[in-house]
Amino acid sequence: MFFYRLWYDFGSFSRLMVIGGNMIFVYFLIGFGILLLLYMAKEAFANRLLYHTLFFPEFPESFEQVTIFFISDIHRRNVSDKIITKAVGKADIVIIGGDLTEKGVSFNKVKTNILKLKRIAPVFFVWGNNDYEVEPHLLDTILLDCGVKVLANTAVKFESNSGDLFNLLGIDDLAEERDRLDYALQDAEKNGFRVLVSHNPEIIHKIKPENNIHLVLSGHTHGGQIRIFGYGPYEKGGIKKIGNITVFISNGYGTTALPLRLGAKAETHLITIKNQENRQY
Predict the structure, then answer these.
(1) Strand partners, 159
(2) Which end of the chain is more exposed for a tag (fewer CB within 10 A), N or C?
(3) Domain ranges within the chain, ordered by starting residue
(4) CATH topology of domain 47-278
(5) Span 141-166, mean pLDDT?
(6) Rounded to two decimals, what is the model's pTM?
(7) pLDDT-based confidence at residue 13 (cuts at 50, 70, 90)
(8) How far apart are CA 263 and CA 234, in angstroms?
(9) Alpha-carbon torsion angle 6, 11, 16, 17, nearest 10
(10) Residue 97 above 70 pLDDT?
């Protein structure tokens, strides 16, 4: 009887240990999940301003340099004053690379974000797929009222004191099948350095060598937004060379669906373009 009781008590104790161990593991998972969500929210609402210097032999030396503040995929976010303060006085132009807004975002918020960006420099805009979730005519009116230059299959030129040209081309959204690269090319000067802004980086497959595009600026992918063990639905943002074209893809500033990021932190950019000869090794 004694041994039976001892065995019974030991069995009960073992079951309690197993249950207790399982509960500790559950609490650990819950705690880890909460910490992970907090970290992902922090990544999503980060206010990073990254600095890049790109060198091109085709860039006219007479410009010395051109600096672009590039921001894409703002979506539902409020542009932070911290970002604006960092960028003021450092950029020649601001480019919004599409998805300035989306369904459910008030036009008051959109206008506030635009006016903040105007404090940095003159603003240029290309349409993204989510921009068409709102009333396009109303958004177009706000952009016009705020003095934003919309590049919808069009181009603008900048001329140095020596007469050299810097061409900025922008196309409408590719996913909405509104892109007409041929129109933008016709609108651009035949000579000079060419930067093409396209919300969707897939435009690279429509560019021909004779188009003489030197740099492509894009967003759209969010860098995959949530990357598990380094893998995501899209590649992480970055700079790469495809043929003779430099392709710059941003992770973007906002988020879509979930206000969370993992492995693809929110970012904005100051991109300085210089002539290759001025590069210091």
Answers:
(1) 165
(2) C
(3) 1-44, 47-278
(4) Purple Acid Phosphatase; chain A, domain 2 (3.60.21)
(5) 97
(6) 0.90
(7) very low
(8) 12
(9) 100
(10) yes
Calpha distance 202→141 (Å, rounded): 28
Answer yes or no: are the C-beta atoms of 132 and 125 closer than 8 Å: no
Task: Judge whether 220 and 98 are in contact, CB under 8 Å.
Answer: yes
Token reading at 198: 């396209």
CB-neighbour burial class of residue 147 (10 A; exposed 0-12, middle 13-18, buried 19+): exposed
The structure tokens listed for 12 are 């009960």
Distance CA 184, CA 166 (A): 14
Which pair of tokens denotes residue 115? 């006016």
For residue 15, pLDDT beyond 70: no
Q: In 10 A of CB 160, how many CB atoms?
A: 15
Q: In 3D, which of 51, 118, 56, 120 has the Cα closest to residue 87? A: 120
Q: What is the DSSP string of the chain?
A: -HHHHHHHHHHHHHHHHHHHHHHHHHHHHHHHHHHHHHHHHHHHT---EEEEEEEETTS-GGG-EEEEEEE---TTPPPPHHHHHHHTTT-SEEEE-S-S--TT--HHHHHHHHHHHHTTS-EEE---GGGGGS-HHHHHHHHHHTTPEE-SSEEEEEE-TTS-EEEEEE---TTTT---HHHHHHHS-SSSEEEEE-SSGGGGGG--GGG---EEEE-SSGGGSB-BTTB-SSPPPEEEEETTEEEEE---SS-SSSS--BSS---EEEEEEEEGGG---
User: In the prediction, which pLDDT does 7 show?
Assistant: 41
Q: What share of the chain in percent tops pLDDT 70? A: 89
CA dihedral 31, 32, 37, 43 (to 10 degrees): 130
198-207 as b/e: b if 16+ CB within 10 A: bbbbebbeeb
Residue with tokens 């542009």: 79
- Which tokens belong to 123? 């603003």
